[in-house]
Design a protein that fits this description.
By secondary structure, the protein is α+β, with helices and mostly antiparallel strands. It folds into two domains: about 5-180, no CATH class; about 190-320, no CATH class. The chain is about 45% helix and about 20% strand. The protein is built from nine helices and eight strands. The strands form two sheets. A four-stranded antiparallel beta sheet has the order 1-2-3-4. It has a four-stranded antiparallel beta sheet with strand order 5-6-7-8. The longest helix is centred in the middle third of the chain and has 32 residues, at about 150-180. It is elongated, with a radius of gyration of 23 Å.
Length: about 325
C-alpha cells in the first residue's frame, strides 16, 4: 500500500478506537506511516538484512517497540494517557503491516523470531484508486473542512471513508478467495496475481528446470472466465556468449532474459513475461515485463536490443507498454 493510504487508514482506525481526540489521531496516523521509515536503514541493510525494507519495522515486534517508546515520549509533547497512546500507536503500526501483507508485497510479521511471510496477494502494492482517494481525503479533511465546516460534516466524511475502505478491503479479499477456488479448475495454473481491478486477476504458473524459467499466464475476469491467454514464454537463467544477432523471437527472448534479470531487480523478483520483435533494419528487440509492477497500462521492464550486425546488446530499464499483450 502507498504511504498516504497507510496514514489515512491508521487515522480512521484511531478514530474508531478512541473517537475525536486530535493528539491520539495524530499519533495513530504517524504510526501508520512509520514502518516505511526503514528506508533510512538502506546503507546498513546489506550488512544487516533484518533492517531491509519490509524487515523488522514491518513486524509485530518492531511495531511494539515503536509503540512502547512512543507512549512514553508522546505525553511530553501533547498531554494524554500513555496507555491510550500505546493503543493507537500499536494499532496504526499493525494496520500498516496487515495492509502490506494484504498485497503481493510480503512482510515478515514474526521477525526476529521467524522469517515466515504474510502475503495474501489480494491487491497491488500500489493501487491508484486507494492512492487517489487517500490524497483527496487528506485535502478534504485538512484543507477544505478543517475549521471551515460544522463538526458534523467532518464526522460524516470520516464515516464515509471508513465505509469505503471497509467495503474495498472486503471486495478485494472476496475476489481473492474466489480466485483461490477457481485455480483448482484451471489445470496448469497455481498462482494468482492481482491487477488494479478487484474483478480481474492474473493466473499463472512458473517452473524452473535445467536452468530455464517457463511461465504460463492468463487474464481471468470473475463471472467471465479467461479473457486473454494463456500466454507462454521461457528464457535461460544462464548468460552465454552469442555470435551475431538472434534469428527469431524465441532466441531473442532467450538471449535477453539473463541480461534483463541482471539489469532490473523487478524482473528477477516478480512474475514476468516477454515479447520480441524485429525492426526494418534487421535488429531484434526483446522486452521482459513485470506482471506485478504496472501502472497506467505500462510495466516495469527491461528492453534489450541486439544490433543486426552483432556486437554488444543495448540494455535499458524503464516503464514500457506491451505491444501485443495487454497487462
Amino acid at each position: 500500500m502507498d504511504l498516504f493510504t497507510h496514514v489515512l487508514v491508521a487515522y480512521l482506525l484511531a478514530y474508531g478506537l478512541v473517537g475525536f481526540h486530535p493528539q491520539y489521531l495524530a499519533a495513530g496516523a504517524l504510526a501508520g506511516g512509520l514502518p516505511d521509515g526503514d528506508a533510512i536503514f538502506f546503507p546498513l541493510a546489506r550488512r544487516f538484512p533484518i533492517l531491509r525494507h519490509h524487515g523488522i519495522t514491518h513486524s509485530i515486534f518492531g511495531v511494539s517497540v515503536v509503540a512502547g517508546v512512543g507512549c512514553l515520549v508522546a505525553p511530553l509533547l501533547a498531554p494524554g494517557s500513555p496507555l491510550v497512546y500505546f493503543l493507537v500507536l500499536e494499532a496504526g503500526g499493525l494496520a500498516h503491516v496487515a495492509m502490506d501483507g494484504f498485497t503481493h508485497f510480503s512482510v515478515p510479521p514474526l521477525l526476529p523470531f521467524s522469517d515466515r511471510r504474510l502475503e495474501l496477494d489480494a491487491d497491488r502494492a500500489i493501487n491508484f484508486l486507494t492512492l487517489g482517494v487517500s490524497v483527496a481525503s487528506f485535502y478534504l479533511l485538512l484543507g477544505v473542512e478543517r475549521n471551515h465546516v460544522p463538526f458534523e460534516y467532518y464526522l460524516v466524511t470520516v464515516w464515509v471513508l471508513m465505509a469505503f475502505f471497509g467495503a474495498y478491503f472486503f471486495l478485494r479479499l472476496f475476489g481473492r478467495l474466489k480466485m483461490g477456488r477457481k485455480l483448482r479448475s484451471l489445470g496448469e495454473f497455481d498462482r494468482v496475481v492481482p491487477t488494479s481491478s478487484p474483478l480481474t486477476w492474473l493466473v499463472l504458473s512458473e517452473k524452473v528446470e535445467n536452468e530455464r524459467v517457463r511461465t504460463s499466464w492468463a487474464r481471468y475476469t470473475l463471472g467471465r472466465g479467461v479473457v486473454a491467454g494463456p500466454f507462454r514464454v521461457e528464457g535461460s537463467l544462464e548468460s552465454s556468449e552469442h555470435a551475431g544477432a538472434p534469428s527469431n523471437e524465441a532466441e531473442a527472448l532467450d538471449w535477453a532474459y539473463p541480461l534483463a534479470r541482471k539489469a532490473n531487480r523487478m524482473i528477477e523478483s516478480t512474475y514476468h513475461f516477454g515479447e520480441a520483435f524485429q525492426d526494418a533494419g534487421g535488429s531484434w528487440t526483446a522486452v521482459w515485463y513485470s506482471l506485478e509492477f504496472t501502472m497506467f497500462g505500462r510495466s516495469a521492464a527491461v528492453k534489450v536490443r541486439f544490433p543486426s550486425g552483432g556486437g554488444a546488446a543495448e540494455v535499458r530499464s524503464a516503464f514500457y507498454r506491451p505491444l501485443r499483450r495487454a497487462i
